[in-house]
TrEMBL record:
Signal peptide: none annotated. Residues 11-126 form the MaoC-like domain. It comes from the Bacteria. InterPro entries: HotDog_dom_sf, MaoC-like_dom, MCH/BMMD. This is MaoC family dehydratase. It comes from Streptomyces viridiviolaceus. Pfam families: MaoC_dehydratas. Belongs to the enoyl-CoA hydratase/isomerase family. The lineage of its organism: Bacteria, Bacillati, Actinomycetota, Actinomycetes, Kitasatosporales.
Amino acid sequence: MPARTFEDLRVGEVFRAPSRTLTDAHAAAFQTVSADNHPVHYDAEWARRHGHSAPVVHGLQVLAFTAPGATLFPHFIGEVFISFLELSCTFLAEVHSGDTLYPALTITGLERQGDDGVVVTAATIHNQRGELVLSGQHKYLLRRQ
């Protein structure tokens, strides 16, 4: 597909990522890479004793599913991407092994900055029950021309 420019993007456009069903292997791999060894992430008995129904998937692992490259967004914009400027998020519900996640980025703002432009997106992840488990915002810097 031909790459779109900053001027071609529209507020309200949605870029979805493929759904992902998390497994214990995914959680273990992230634990290895992140070195986050808190027992809430792997010890079922510890998690239950502390009010969780099961070990909780790492929040940063869930957040990673909102990466622009996990969606079709980079394929639409081609070579105009300069940088990922900032992000924020709120974790709204626990995610456990076996949950299927549905990430999406929705353009909420387009701000011109000289020869460049900032794309603001709402980053969301819903689970298989339609519950919003993560809500946040990303900002990307793109070349305008």
